[in-house]
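User:
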Amino acid sequence: MPPLSPELRAREFPIARQATYLNHAASAPLPTRSADALRQYIASRLELHRLYQTGAQDYDSGPLRAKLARLLNATLASIGFVPTTSDGISGALNALDWRPGDNVVLPANDYPGVVYACEWLGRRGVEVRAVPMPNGHLEVDQLLAGLDGRTRAVAAQHVHWQTGHRIDLAELGRACAERGVISVIDAIQSVGAQPIDVTAAKVDFLVAGAYKWLLGIPGTAVLYVSPRALDSVRPDRAGWASMHTPVQATPKLEWAEDATRFLVGGPADGALIALERSVDLLLEVGVEAIARHTAKLVGAIAAGATALGLRVNSSLEPEHRSSIVNITAGDADRDTELVQALVAEGIIVARRGPGIRIAPHLHNESADVDRLLDALARHIAAPARAR
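Assistant: Predicted structure:
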């Protein structure tokens, strides 16, 4: 049974009446409640004096942090915000007290934002160990084999941005914790679509931009920092928002006691306001229900694509399946043509990595899969354009 009733789907996702949107791994359509909250925020900025008259000129992110703590099974103190996922990954890695000869370990096929953040550590004498992944998927045991006594951090995506391959976060987090290694996780492709228990997984840093599976907009990313990391690392940059007493006549360099210390300047209030309403929806529906639903959709897409003679590039094993599936006609140019043809008729997917990336979310239903597969069948049967 879909996680959204037909009434809730129609109310929160009017886009479903206009298009078949299957591209949440790129960005998400806003739920109606979130768009309404954003419109109200914009309207209030037109009459800003009224906010001051009511004492409501500053958005209080406390309730949103509490909701995100529920979503991730974290403490309130562990939740903060940064502008983007890449900013959070880079900030986490640069917060460590690196010494020449230390090393950082990452998968060689990870997202460029992770790779660049690690490579930049080389200027501090850090060895960057990009571990090859011969089968194209991240294997945790292969990654862990790259660790030694000088490894200070491991950086990796929870769900791969091209194929949707999902790793066992607990296996990686616990192994790093046992070795005293800081784990830095890019979770932009999983938070909001896959259940995550950061406490059980023992990860140290986890970052997720708001505009994909969290159903928000660009401008903010959720940051989780474990108690262990809060005790052992300090941000590499400082600003008024990262201090215990943010604004005072005589500034005092005293870090905030919680994860908010990683936000240097003022927050993106509009993005946070929209995100709070979207998180409300995710909590109401339940991420576990969302994951079960999208797993069925992904399975149906993979089965249908295989029947059409396409190849599935994603693992469909339950422990590795996510809300993303990647398929291919076996030719990069043909995949591009298929994506363009689908998008032209309102079926929104993307060309990524080894093929066509398809990423359904809570509002999608089996009829969307049927429309996708019917369109693929038609376009596959049509001759490829002359090249």
